[in-house]
Amino acid sequence: MTQTSSSRPVRPRRSVLYLPATNARALDKLPGLGCDSVIFDLEDSVAPGNKEEARESLRGFFKDGRAKALPAGMETIVRINTLSSPWGGEDLLAARGCKPDAILIPKVETPEDIVAVEDALAQTDAPATLRLWAMIETPRGVMNAGQIARTARTDGARLDCFITGTNDLIKETGVAPLPGRPWLSPWLMQIVLAARAYGIDVLDGVFNDFRNQESLAQECRDGQAMGFDGKTLIHPSQIAPANAAFGIASEQLAEAKAIAAAFALPENQARGVISLDGRMVERLHLDIAERVIEKAALIAAREQGA
Ligand code: COA
Ligand code: MG
């Protein structure tokens, strides 16, 4: 049976911050930040001449206890260069040695790009718990997004999240980077649909103008309405707006609890559809409500621990 979107695990990934692995001050700041996940970057934010320094800095961070001191539940991801680049092979070994939660592969264009990294990881006896994330950020990546997402359904698969690389997509296609993203959105929606078809998470691209809080908040709300699980970020000031837009509002939680309570009543337990406050509520709404309640609990636990 196909794993549907609603049966994928609930993991809050509201705010996913990129951090160039060479930036010592940013690494120092990280334990005090409230992002759900952090991506230590070895790729585009690190200049070609600094790739080895970036790997060293990352190894140090994971080895000397700083990674263990991060807030409980903060997911760690390492973005490597592509295996076809001069740095990808060594990046993969360094990332594997750090034991992050996931490795992020940039510029994924075909299912084989995922399989190549899975094969390389198998040769290093990587634990089955190590996940792969994939950036969809080229025209071919968007066109093949369904086939790429489908690799998540094969035995021993590691793929569990897509990231839309909007800056690269804009560069590769020539589409205008307009407010509201009118021409980019159809491709973003295609990526969301591909992820959902095979039960993986999907995150929106970055907002470059990091001093503009109002437009960032709007883009976060747009991303949430488009079905993304969260937003990738470049600056600490972007974390709070992303957490707000992709979190659970109190009215949403109250509604979810009301739906769960209504279906739990003895007279409703065998019913597929009920009426609640004048609206039709089906069991599929109960599925959604249960995910909302679980996500709210995970967020609350994380925020208490942060
Ligand atoms: N993660 C953690 N801390 C960060 C950070 C990040 N991504 N970006 C900035 N900070 C820290 C800075 O180190 C600085 O700390 P300090 O006060 O101890 O010196 C503080 O936040 C304020 O930074 P600020 O001066 O406002 O920004 P900046 O001019 O130093 O840096 C960028 C701006 C865009 C260059 C920087 O935010 C950055 O490198 N972002 C990530 C870029 C990236 O990874 N791109 C690849 C994916 S698109
Ligand atoms: Mg990119």
Briefly characterize the structure.
By secondary structure, the chain is an alpha/beta fold.
Bound ligands: coenzyme A, magnesium ion
CATH architecture of the largest domain: Alpha-Beta Barrel
Distance between the ends: 38 Å
What is the averaged pLDDT score?
A: 95
Explain what you see.
The chain has 306 residues and is an alpha/beta fold. The protein folds into two domains: 5-246, Phosphoenolpyruvate-binding domains (TIM Barrel); 250-303, no CATH class. It contains twelve helices and ten strands. The strands form two sheets. An eight-stranded parallel beta barrel has the order 1-2-3-4-5-6-7-8, surrounded by five helices. Strands 9-10 form a two-stranded antiparallel sheet. Strand 3 (75-79), helix 3 and strand 4 form a beta-alpha-beta unit. Magnesium ion (MG) binds next to loops. Magnesium ion is lined by residues 44, 106, 135, 137, 165, 168.
Q: What are its keywords?
A:
16% strand; alpha/beta; binds coenzyme A; TIM Barrel; 8-stranded parallel β-barrel; 306 residues; 12 helices; binds magnesium ion; two-stranded antiparallel sheet
Question: Helices and strands in order, then pairings?
Answer:
Layout lengths: L14 E6 L3 H6 L7 E5 L9 H13 L11 E5 L8 H11 L3 E4 L5 H13 L7 E6 L2 H5 L1 H6 L8 E6 L1 H8 L11 H13 L3 E4 L8 H14 L3 E4 L5 H8 L3 H15 L8 E4 L2 E4 H23 L1
Parallel strand pairs: 1-2, 1-8, 2-3, 3-4, 4-5, 5-6, 6-7, 7-8
Antiparallel strand pairs: 9-10
The structure holds coenzyme A and magnesium ion.
Coenzyme A (COA) binds next to strand 1 and helix 1.
